[in-house]
Amino acid sequence: MSNICPKSEKCPIFQGGVLKRASSEQIYRNLYCNAGKIKYEKCMRFIVSEKVGKPAPISVLPNSTKSLDDIISSMS
Ligand code: SF4
Fold first, then answer.
1. Which residues line ligand 1 (CB under 6 A)?
2. What is the pTM of this model?
3. 46-59 pLDDT per residue, tens
4. pLDDT confidence of 2, banded at 50, 70, 90?
5. Pairwise CA distance, residues 53 & 46, whole Å
6. Domain that residue 37 falls in
7. Residue 2: inside a domain, yes or no?
C-alpha cells in the first residue's frame, strides 16, 4: 500500500504554492502527506474531506486545531 495520501493529487497543500513558505508545505508533506496511512488519516484536511465528500477549504491546514464541526459549519 502507498504511503502517500490518496488525496495528494488534488490537494493544494501537497501540490504546493499556496502557503507563504514553501518550507511549511514541505513540513506538512513530511509529517502527513508522505508519512503513511496512520499520519495522513490524522490530517484535518483529510478528515474534513472524508466527512463532507469534497475537498477541504484551503484555509484548513493539516494540523488545524479547530473542531471538525466548526470547520464543517464554516463551509456551509
Ligand atoms: S494535506 Fe492532508 S489531505 Fe492534503 S495530501 Fe496532505 S495528508 Fe492528504
1. 5, 7-8, 11, 13-14, 28, 32-33, 40, 43, 45-46, 62
2. 0.95
3. 999 999 999 999 99
4. confident
5. 10
6. 8-75
7. no
Our mutation pick for probing the ligand 1 site, out of 2, 18, 33, counting the most ligand atoms within 8 A of Cβ, is 33
Cα–Cα distance for residue pair 5/22, rounded to 1 Å: 19
Based on the number of CB atoms within 10 Å of its own CB, is 33 exposed (0-12), middle (13-18) or buried (19 or more)? Answer: buried
Residue nearest atom 3 in ligand 1 by C-alpha distance: 46
Number of structural domains found in the chain: 1
Residue 61 to residues 19, 42, 68, Cα–Cα distance (Å): 10, 11, 12
Q: How far apart are CA 76 and CA 70, in angstroms?
A: 10
| 3 is a domain residue | no
Distance (angstroms) between ligand 1 centre and the Cα of 28 equals: 8
